[in-house]
Amino acid sequence: MIDALTANILSMVYIIIGGVLISWSVHFVPVGGAPAAMAQATGIGTGTVQLAAGAGLTGLVSAGFMMNVTDNLPLILASGAVGAMIMIAVTMIVGTWVYVYGVGCVPSSAKVKVDPITKYRQDLYVSQGTEGHGLPTVSFVSGVIGGCLGGIGGALVYYALIEVGLAAGLTAGGSSTVTGHELVGIAAMFAIGIFFVNAVIPSYNIGGTIEGFHDPKWKKWPKAVISSFVATILCAVVAVIAISQLGGI
Protein backbone atom coordinates (compact mmCIF):
# COMPACT_ATOMS: atom_id res chain seq x y z
CA MET A 1 0.00 0.00 0.00
CA ILE A 2 1.24 3.50 -0.78
CA ASP A 3 0.58 6.52 1.43
CA ALA A 4 -1.86 9.30 0.51
CA LEU A 5 0.88 11.80 -0.47
CA THR A 6 2.54 9.37 -2.87
CA ALA A 7 -0.85 8.46 -4.36
CA ASN A 8 -1.70 12.14 -4.91
CA ILE A 9 1.67 12.84 -6.53
CA LEU A 10 1.17 9.84 -8.83
CA SER A 11 -2.30 11.15 -9.73
CA MET A 12 -0.79 14.55 -10.57
CA VAL A 13 1.72 12.84 -12.87
CA TYR A 14 -1.12 11.01 -14.62
CA ILE A 15 -3.05 14.26 -15.02
CA ILE A 16 -0.03 16.07 -16.49
CA ILE A 17 0.67 13.24 -18.95
CA GLY A 18 -3.00 13.21 -19.92
CA GLY A 19 -3.05 16.97 -20.45
CA VAL A 20 0.02 16.83 -22.68
CA LEU A 21 -1.53 14.01 -24.75
CA ILE A 22 -4.74 16.01 -25.16
CA SER A 23 -2.80 19.05 -26.35
CA TRP A 24 -0.78 17.01 -28.82
CA SER A 25 -3.87 15.21 -30.11
CA VAL A 26 -5.53 18.47 -31.18
CA HIS A 27 -2.87 18.99 -33.85
CA PHE A 28 -3.81 15.70 -35.53
CA VAL A 29 -7.54 16.43 -35.89
CA PRO A 30 -8.40 17.98 -39.30
CA VAL A 31 -10.20 21.23 -38.53
CA GLY A 32 -11.60 23.38 -41.31
CA GLY A 33 -13.94 25.72 -39.47
CA ALA A 34 -16.29 27.92 -41.48
CA PRO A 35 -14.24 27.62 -44.74
CA ALA A 36 -14.59 23.82 -44.62
CA ALA A 37 -18.33 24.16 -44.07
CA MET A 38 -18.42 25.90 -47.45
CA ALA A 39 -16.11 23.25 -49.00
CA GLN A 40 -13.33 25.81 -49.39
CA ALA A 41 -10.89 24.16 -47.00
CA THR A 42 -9.97 20.63 -45.99
CA GLY A 43 -11.32 19.33 -42.70
CA ILE A 44 -14.46 19.19 -40.59
CA GLY A 45 -16.59 22.31 -40.68
CA THR A 46 -16.34 23.29 -37.01
CA GLY A 47 -13.79 24.67 -34.55
CA THR A 48 -10.74 23.09 -32.96
CA VAL A 49 -12.04 23.16 -29.41
CA GLN A 50 -15.40 21.63 -30.30
CA LEU A 51 -13.82 18.74 -32.18
CA ALA A 52 -11.18 18.10 -29.53
CA ALA A 53 -13.74 18.26 -26.76
CA GLY A 54 -16.14 16.01 -28.65
CA ALA A 55 -13.53 13.33 -29.25
CA GLY A 56 -11.95 13.59 -25.82
CA LEU A 57 -15.15 13.71 -23.82
CA THR A 58 -16.43 10.67 -25.71
CA GLY A 59 -13.24 8.89 -24.66
CA LEU A 60 -13.73 10.13 -21.11
CA VAL A 61 -17.27 8.71 -21.00
CA SER A 62 -16.05 5.41 -22.48
CA ALA A 63 -13.37 5.24 -19.81
CA GLY A 64 -16.00 5.94 -17.16
CA PHE A 65 -18.08 2.98 -18.31
CA MET A 66 -14.99 0.75 -18.25
CA MET A 67 -14.19 1.90 -14.69
CA ASN A 68 -17.55 0.47 -13.61
CA VAL A 69 -16.29 -2.92 -14.78
CA THR A 70 -12.60 -2.97 -13.87
CA ASP A 71 -9.85 -0.97 -12.20
CA ASN A 72 -7.31 -2.11 -14.81
CA LEU A 73 -5.66 1.09 -16.11
CA PRO A 74 -4.57 -0.25 -19.54
CA LEU A 75 -8.13 -1.43 -20.26
CA ILE A 76 -9.54 1.92 -19.13
CA LEU A 77 -7.14 3.82 -21.39
CA ALA A 78 -7.88 1.47 -24.29
CA SER A 79 -11.61 2.03 -23.79
CA GLY A 80 -11.11 5.80 -23.81
CA ALA A 81 -8.98 5.61 -26.96
CA VAL A 82 -11.47 3.43 -28.85
CA GLY A 83 -14.44 5.60 -27.85
CA ALA A 84 -12.74 8.79 -29.04
CA MET A 85 -11.51 7.15 -32.26
CA ILE A 86 -15.01 5.94 -33.13
CA MET A 87 -16.49 9.38 -32.48
CA ILE A 88 -14.01 11.29 -34.64
CA ALA A 89 -14.03 8.62 -37.38
CA VAL A 90 -17.84 8.71 -37.65
CA THR A 91 -17.77 12.51 -37.75
CA MET A 92 -15.23 12.48 -40.59
CA ILE A 93 -17.09 9.79 -42.55
CA VAL A 94 -20.39 11.67 -42.37
CA GLY A 95 -18.59 14.89 -43.30
CA THR A 96 -17.09 13.16 -46.32
CA TRP A 97 -20.54 11.95 -47.43
CA VAL A 98 -21.82 15.52 -47.29
CA TYR A 99 -18.85 16.87 -49.26
CA VAL A 100 -18.93 14.16 -51.93
CA TYR A 101 -22.64 13.51 -52.40
CA GLY A 102 -24.11 16.79 -51.15
CA VAL A 103 -21.66 19.42 -52.37
CA GLY A 104 -20.21 17.33 -55.19
CA CYS A 105 -16.49 17.90 -54.60
CA VAL A 106 -13.55 15.50 -54.49
CA PRO A 107 -11.74 15.25 -51.15
CA SER A 108 -8.32 16.76 -51.84
CA SER A 109 -5.59 18.57 -49.98
CA ALA A 110 -3.93 21.80 -51.09
CA LYS A 111 -1.07 21.32 -48.64
CA VAL A 112 0.54 18.39 -50.45
CA LYS A 113 0.76 17.46 -54.10
CA VAL A 114 0.49 13.72 -53.34
CA ASP A 115 -1.48 12.12 -50.51
CA PRO A 116 1.16 10.59 -48.17
CA ILE A 117 -1.07 7.56 -47.51
CA THR A 118 -2.59 6.67 -50.89
CA LYS A 119 0.09 8.35 -53.07
CA TYR A 120 -2.71 9.81 -55.23
CA ARG A 121 -2.34 13.25 -56.82
CA GLN A 122 -4.15 16.01 -54.93
CA ASP A 123 -3.43 19.20 -56.85
CA LEU A 124 -5.44 18.07 -59.89
CA TYR A 125 -8.68 18.12 -57.90
CA VAL A 126 -8.30 21.25 -55.79
CA SER A 127 -10.78 23.90 -56.97
CA GLN A 128 -9.29 27.26 -57.87
CA GLY A 129 -9.44 29.78 -55.04
CA THR A 130 -9.83 27.15 -52.31
CA GLU A 131 -7.51 25.50 -49.76
CA GLY A 132 -8.78 22.08 -50.75
CA HIS A 133 -12.02 20.44 -49.70
CA GLY A 134 -13.43 17.36 -48.04
CA LEU A 135 -11.41 14.91 -45.98
CA PRO A 136 -8.72 13.10 -48.00
CA THR A 137 -7.28 9.84 -46.68
CA VAL A 138 -4.30 11.43 -44.95
CA SER A 139 -6.59 13.77 -42.99
CA PHE A 140 -8.85 10.87 -41.98
CA VAL A 141 -5.90 8.81 -40.71
CA SER A 142 -4.52 11.82 -38.87
CA GLY A 143 -7.90 12.47 -37.24
CA VAL A 144 -8.15 8.88 -35.98
CA ILE A 145 -4.66 9.18 -34.48
CA GLY A 146 -5.71 12.42 -32.82
CA GLY A 147 -8.82 10.78 -31.42
CA CYS A 148 -6.72 7.95 -30.00
CA LEU A 149 -4.30 10.32 -28.24
CA GLY A 150 -7.10 12.56 -26.98
CA GLY A 151 -9.09 9.60 -25.70
CA ILE A 152 -6.11 8.21 -23.82
CA GLY A 153 -5.34 11.65 -22.37
CA GLY A 154 -8.91 12.27 -21.29
CA ALA A 155 -9.22 8.79 -19.78
CA LEU A 156 -5.95 9.21 -17.88
CA VAL A 157 -7.04 12.55 -16.38
CA TYR A 158 -10.46 11.13 -15.48
CA TYR A 159 -8.98 7.99 -13.91
CA ALA A 160 -6.50 9.97 -11.82
CA LEU A 161 -9.09 12.40 -10.47
CA ILE A 162 -11.65 9.68 -9.75
CA GLU A 163 -8.99 7.79 -7.79
CA VAL A 164 -8.23 10.95 -5.80
CA GLY A 165 -11.94 11.40 -5.09
CA LEU A 166 -12.42 7.78 -4.01
CA ALA A 167 -9.29 7.89 -1.83
CA ALA A 168 -10.47 11.13 -0.18
CA GLY A 169 -13.85 9.56 0.56
CA LEU A 170 -12.28 6.42 2.04
CA THR A 171 -9.84 8.43 4.15
CA ALA A 172 -12.62 10.60 5.56
CA GLY A 173 -14.80 7.57 6.27
CA GLY A 174 -18.17 8.54 7.66
CA SER A 175 -16.93 11.86 9.12
CA SER A 176 -17.16 13.83 5.86
CA THR A 177 -20.29 15.78 4.92
CA VAL A 178 -19.38 15.25 1.24
CA THR A 179 -20.40 11.79 0.04
CA GLY A 180 -18.31 9.51 -2.16
CA HIS A 181 -20.70 9.98 -5.07
CA GLU A 182 -20.38 13.76 -4.76
CA LEU A 183 -16.58 13.52 -4.75
CA VAL A 184 -16.69 11.42 -7.92
CA GLY A 185 -18.96 14.01 -9.55
CA ILE A 186 -16.61 16.84 -8.55
CA ALA A 187 -13.65 14.87 -9.89
CA ALA A 188 -15.46 14.42 -13.22
CA MET A 189 -16.11 18.18 -13.40
CA PHE A 190 -12.42 18.91 -12.83
CA ALA A 191 -11.52 16.36 -15.52
CA ILE A 192 -13.77 18.09 -18.06
CA GLY A 193 -12.32 21.47 -17.11
CA ILE A 194 -8.74 20.25 -17.54
CA PHE A 195 -9.67 18.78 -20.90
CA PHE A 196 -11.07 22.09 -22.14
CA VAL A 197 -7.97 23.97 -20.95
CA ASN A 198 -5.79 21.65 -22.99
CA ALA A 199 -8.10 21.89 -26.00
CA VAL A 200 -8.08 25.70 -26.06
CA ILE A 201 -4.30 26.18 -25.76
CA PRO A 202 -3.41 24.32 -29.01
CA SER A 203 -6.29 26.01 -30.84
CA TYR A 204 -4.47 29.32 -30.43
CA ASN A 205 -1.26 27.63 -31.58
CA ILE A 206 -2.95 26.32 -34.72
CA GLY A 207 -4.66 29.63 -35.44
CA GLY A 208 -7.62 28.54 -37.53
CA THR A 209 -7.51 25.46 -39.75
CA ILE A 210 -5.24 22.44 -39.94
CA GLU A 211 -5.37 19.39 -42.23
CA GLY A 212 -3.46 16.87 -40.12
CA PHE A 213 0.09 15.71 -39.58
CA HIS A 214 1.02 16.58 -43.20
CA ASP A 215 0.09 20.23 -42.66
CA PRO A 216 3.07 22.57 -42.07
CA LYS A 217 1.23 23.94 -39.00
CA TRP A 218 1.55 20.51 -37.36
CA LYS A 219 5.22 21.20 -36.70
CA LYS A 220 4.22 23.91 -34.23
CA TRP A 221 2.91 21.32 -31.73
CA PRO A 222 5.90 21.53 -29.29
CA LYS A 223 4.92 25.10 -28.34
CA ALA A 224 1.39 24.05 -27.41
CA VAL A 225 2.57 20.92 -25.59
CA ILE A 226 5.01 22.92 -23.44
CA SER A 227 2.30 25.49 -22.64
CA SER A 228 -0.16 22.73 -21.77
CA PHE A 229 2.45 21.02 -19.61
CA VAL A 230 2.80 24.15 -17.48
CA ALA A 231 -0.94 24.82 -17.39
CA THR A 232 -1.76 21.22 -16.48
CA ILE A 233 0.69 21.26 -13.57
CA LEU A 234 -1.29 24.15 -12.06
CA CYS A 235 -4.61 22.45 -12.85
CA ALA A 236 -3.42 19.17 -11.33
CA VAL A 237 -2.27 20.81 -8.10
CA VAL A 238 -5.53 22.74 -7.70
CA ALA A 239 -7.73 19.74 -8.57
CA VAL A 240 -5.98 17.21 -6.32
CA ILE A 241 -5.79 19.58 -3.34
CA ALA A 242 -9.40 20.74 -3.76
CA ILE A 243 -10.80 17.18 -4.03
CA SER A 244 -8.67 15.94 -1.12
CA GLN A 245 -9.79 18.84 1.09
CA LEU A 246 -13.44 18.35 0.18
CA GLY A 247 -13.13 14.73 1.23
CA GLY A 248 -12.11 15.85 4.71
CA ILE A 249 -14.93 18.38 5.20
Characterize the structure shown.
With 249 residues, the chain is mostly helical. The chain is built from seven helices and three strands, in the order H-H-E-H-H-E-E-H-H-H. The protein has helices at 4-26, 33-37, 48-67, 73-103, 137-172, 180-206, 221-247, and strands at residues 41-42, 108-109, 131-134. Strands 1-3-2 form a three-stranded mixed sheet. The radius of gyration is 20 Å and the shape is elongated. The mean pLDDT is 85.
Strand order of the largest sheet: 1-3-2
Sheet of most strands: 3 strands, mixed
Global morphology = elongated
Number of helices: 7
**H/E element order:** HHEHHEEHHH
Alpha carbon gap, first and last residue: 24 Å
Helix content bin: 55-70%
| Overall structural domain count | 1
Strand-pairing-aware structural class: mainly alpha
List the helices and strands and how they pair.
Elements: H1 4-26, H2 33-37, E1 41-42, H3 48-67, H4 73-103, E2 108-109, E3 131-134, H5 137-172, H6 180-206, H7 221-247
Parallel strand pairs: 1-3
Antiparallel strand pairs: 2-3
Helix pairs in contact: 1-5, 1-6, 1-7, 3-4, 3-5, 3-6, 4-5, 5-6, 5-7, 6-7
